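Lab notebook page, bench 4
Experiment: in silico fold of construct C2
Operator: M.H.
Input chain length: 941 residues
Purpose: comparison with the prior construct
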Amino acid sequence: MPIFPRVPFHRLAALWLAGVGVCVMAGVLSGRIELARLFLNAVPASFNAGLLGLVAAVALWSDPRVPSRRLAWCAALLVLLPALVLAEHLSGLDLGIDLPALHRAMQSTSSHPGRLAPNSCLGFLFAGLALWLQHRPGLRWRSLLVSCSVYGTLAVGLSALTGYVLDLQEMYKLLSFNSMSAAVMAMLVVLGATLWSSLLAGESSDTAGERPEDRITRTAVGVLGIVAVVSGVAGFGLMQRAYKMTVAEGLETAARGHAGAFAHSLKQEMEIAESVSRQLAVQRALAQLAVKPTDAQAFDDLRELAASVLGQDYSALRVQNGQGESLLEAGSARLRVASVALPLGDGHSTLLWDDGLVLHSELPVERNGERVGGLMLERRLGVLTGLLYDLQHRDDSTDALLCARIDDDAVCLPSRFYEAGRHIAMYRKDGQPYLPISKALLGMTGTDSVKDLRDVPVQAGYAPLRGVNLGLVVKTDSGELFSYIRSRLHLLTGLLAALVLVGAWLLRSHVLPLAQRLARSERRLQMVSDNLPALVFHVDADLRYQFANARYLPMAGLDPKAMIGERMQDVLGTEAFAVIAEHIAAALRGERVRYERHGEWLGREHHHLVEYVPERRPDGSVAGLYGMVMDITERHQAQAQLAASEARLRTITDNVPALITYVDTDLRFQFCNPVFEAWTGIRVADALGRRMQDVLPPKVMALRQRQIERALRGETVQFETVAVLGQGPRHFQVNYLPHRDEQGRVIGVYSLTNDISAQKELERKLQTLARVDALTGLANRRQFEERFSEAMSRCRRSGRPMALMFMDIDKFKGINDTLGHAGGDEVLKTFGQRLSASVRKTDTVARLAGDEFVVILEGLNTVDEPHFLARKILAAISAEQQVLGHSLSVTTSIGISFYEGDDSTEGSLMALADKALYEAKSAGRGTYRCAPRSVVVAGRG
């Protein structure tokens, strides 16, 4: 921690102004002229000058950007007193505010002792206006007026101070009026600089939509104008120094940024090359060739690899076996011989130059820890070559060196002014680094003003490419940087207005490109950090914010611009800081901290993943820390939702009316739902972790062994089985579903068993309904056809004759017309019942359709049996019956055909019986007729 606390600039300025003001006032009151002079041999300041300095100090003590009553009173006094003195100068009146009695001894030659010089009045008047405008936020042209007032204060103070230093009296003394004192000059410069820093810089940073390069340009032009007005030759010397520092910082930033980008790109390219050597196809092919050097399939695989690699912008490929012998080359006929080769430090990669950057990689190929061969790859780095070329040619005198350390030399790629492969000594004779490239290769980052190998003074920025054994130097000729300034130095004196315009043009044409490049780099970094879904910040060792990304506003409700320069405790508040204080302290001790934070913080409910990374100086001490706070509320909610989903799934599996289990490849139960225990009587706790064959009965396991093995081979298996439970036999449908991992391997089997006993019973009932006539309960046509075919087959086998009786109800249509369909249905049901009661149980009675019925008579002993049965049926049917309250006598006609094992078909027998039926009807109904057996016999032939 620093010994002295950090004090804001406006308060330092206030302390200085207060000290000077008090000193001047004390000198005037005590008569000690040396206190009122500030500088040796300078004109002593007046009491009012000291008073205005003290008033300005009071105004600056609090942030001048924040309106307050005290600031308003101070601004009014800074405007009113100089305005009254100016009125005295212009009107010739003496208002008595100069206190001449106190100043006559010190200013004996002055015609108006104690009166402020007119330019002093203007300077304080400008400062007062700038402060007063802070209370007028809605005033039109406010921003422009503030800028003019601040620049006016600076211009008056700096012009007078420059004239004093250069002994140009006309710059600080107007005509015959009093001269501006050196103390007032210094006070106006400090006051103007503070107002510029606090007001203009603050407003510029808050201006919506203003580009950084525009802000940089506008500020630079303003500074140039002020310096041009006040300084002449001395001012331009200061500007030259400031400009040189800006360029130096820009070069260092460019070197650091491009070094990081180059290193990142090279590492990515190296990783891509290594990924080729790690491909399983390469390892298998080389391993196969190690066993069988003539394996054609392995060579085909390597050729296919070569075609794939060359399709990824590689220019050359060579495959070697374990003895280093070349097996295959593709692309270039041989590995290119480059003009310079820079090792990249990993032992495998080299950066070549062959009309552009080429990454050369020599990578071992290993399988199961043993080297089976090697790959040599070359890939042109077109993008990096273009970036390096652009960096080397961005200005007329700009150049960039990309070098590697080989022994005690820096070996460099070709640049704008140097040929390829140039060796540069790393150290001077005294052991110090020789040139900026030496420092870069030693891991340093910075900027130097040196003479390069051409003996030309240059400004150089340097940085290491960490992790790839390279260093980068970006340099610009110093003479080119300052040529305009030096060539116009003699024109500046006496041409202040013209020089402001010329200087503005120079800055616009030469600084703007540099500012734009710096601004683009800054915007890229800012855009990346602002669009990360996290809070990103950087604090120094005093815990003062140096950077905060834009996510602070939506995520924490804090303005990132207002945070800069403020301490974490003040920004976050004591309570919120106390939550993170322990972790911050650990990071400042040099520890990398990563933790999750849950609960309320900064007034919001959150779930954060926090990481603090210490920032280290070159000597290893901690200079601050970088922090990233990611909002993982959505992830936390997703995890909670997943847990809830798992709970819902558990509820479903526990309550679904199906048996669900999961076994691993060893057939050990890993999950069983409660139905398992309910159906098997085996406790779930007793089954988990045990093998199926140890839990299930042997008969059950024997039935399922083959199906579970099929599932373990990757098949989805479904089968039905019957098991006897407490309520008797039950039908089950079992589904085995293989569980695969990400590689497609079967790592277990899910089992879903459903009780389908009710479904089976329903199927049985439906099947019965499909074969039975719904009205009479007799066999329907479908069942009749099945039994008729079966009966004929049995007749052919046994040799015993059978008969088919075909009948219908006489005059049934009249019954329907008279009694309606309900009456007709009653007749049909009674007819079916009497018909069934008249035949043997072994005979089949069926209703074909409407009033048509058939009887299959099997196993006849004689052909006379159907005659007897027909008469019995006729008698049973003709008995009187009650239908819907009506007495009714129904008759039937019957046709009979015989079958004795001949070649007749079901259709022919039906036709014969039908024909006999119509003969019976023709005979007057209520009788039967048989198809002559002679016809049947004839049918055999």
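Observations: The chain has 32 helices and 29 strands. Residues 146 and 473 are 42 Å apart (CA to CA).
Next step: discuss at group meeting.
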